[in-house]
Amino acid sequence: MLDIAKVRAQFPILKREVNGKPLVYFDNAATSQKPQVVIDAIVDYYSNYNANIHRGVHALSQEATDVYEAARENVRAFFNIPLAKQTLFTSGNTHSINAVASGAHVFVKEGDEVIVSAVEHHSNIVPWQMLCERVGAHLKVIPVLDNGTLDMDAYQQLLNDKTAFVVVNHVSNALGVTNPVAEIIKRAHAVNALVLIDGAQSCGHMKVDVQALDADFYTMSGHKMCGPTGIGILYGKEHLLNELPPYQGGGEMIDQVSFEKTTYAGLPHKFEAGTPNICGGIALGAAVDYLNEVGMDNIAAYEHELLVYGTEQLKKIDGITIYGDVPDKAAVISFNVSSIHPYDIGTIVDKLGIAVRTGHHCAQPVMTRFNIPGTVRASFAFYNTKEEIDVMVQAMQRAVMMLS
Ligand code: C6P
To answer: To test the ligand 1 pocket, which listed residue (201, 206, 323) has its Cβ within 8 A of the most ligand atoms?
Structure first.
């Protein structure tokens, strides 16, 4: 059970007003808010032990290195990643996916097939399209059914001995639907294909165990799980990370450099060229500690309660269409009302202090599939309340009245 008043008190931003109204922040799928402990970790690093890591023998450098590596260990345990060296720090989910796709010519050859789903974010489409163009492979798409779930029969039909990679998000950011990733992985492995799961919308909202899923690669963004922007995680199976060429060359990722030949460092450094986002890594470690303290099961259960309540209340609005209204989903509600443009609704509710996202959510193929320009998207977090949902629904009703 969550003590919501206590939880909310830990997020300073929730006390502010927007346009003269108490902030109702329902844009958590874009980025989560940050608890005081994460803000404190950032201030503490820059105030007390700012130094570059893995480089200096001096005390500050060692202190920063220790805290940074302890943060990596926190993140490792949070996702049940076997080893710290498989827990790679990146700048975010987009970077993590690109790091795999840019070197994936070692796994995907000319004539091979890469399967993506129709509900992917652009960052889990475009890098794979680029790979396919580079190596002469073919991109195949798992279609989405009218209810927002993936067509698993069609997926089965797509799989064959040319399938080299399958890339799917755990939770769709455009619809909120949770995809059956364990089953997707199992079927892909049956044809010896590798699988990358984009965890941008699952991380921080549900318990994720990369080993139980048997994912080959799993990607996340720190800013979606109470951490800062500019930090993310790439998990990969050890033998695959060893095979994957480095994404960037530079300091820290090398073993020996000469003009004749350079050899690379081992994991995780091979993929961490240059001075990393030290503060971001440390703050993500603090975010993970915080989420553990609140409890991922508590978070998932409470957010589901918000989803059920929010869906019920929004359905009272005449002319509403919710996309992806299925039981197995995260606390994300994507909808339109009659033929009103989502942007117009978003603009009016913003005047009432309510932050929702409108538009295509960087998932244009989803919008094309449903023949819409975009949606209004309300996405909840564990620091939101049913009272805030009531405020949003009233505001939506007012906006619809004004725009009808
Ligand atoms: N979706 C949203 O409002 P980055 O920007 O690298 O942190 O994450 C990219 C990304 C990849 N996959 C999925 C499923 C995502 O939801 C996102 C980010 C935000 O929906 C910003 S566009």
So the answer is: 201
Number of the ligand 1 atom closest to the C-alpha atom of 229: 7
User: Which pTM does this prediction carry?
Assistant: 0.98
For residue 273, the 8-state DSSP code is: -
- Assign domain 49-293 to a CATH class: alpha beta
Tell me how far the alpha carbon of residue 375 lies from the centroid of ligand 1, in angstroms.
16
Q: Which atom of ligand 1 is nearest to the CA of 171?
A: 14
Residues noted as catalytic: 362
Name the segment(s) of the chain with CATH classification 3.40.640.10. Answer: 49-293
- Give me the average pLDDT of each 10-residue run along the chain (404 residues): 96 98 98 98 98 92 97 98 98 98 98 98 98 98 98 98 98 98 98 98 98 98 98 98 97 96 96 97 98 98 98 98 98 97 97 98 98 98 98 97 95
| 172 Cα–ligand 1 center, Å | 10
Ligand 1 lined by 32 (C-beta under 6 Å)? no
- As a whole number of angstroms, the distance between CA 267 and CA 313 comes to 49
Show the DSSP H helices in 30-151 as ranges. Answer: 36-44, 59-78, 93-103, 126-135
CATH class of 4-28+295-403: alpha beta
Report the sign of the C-alpha dihedral through residues 330, 331, 332, 336, in that order: positive
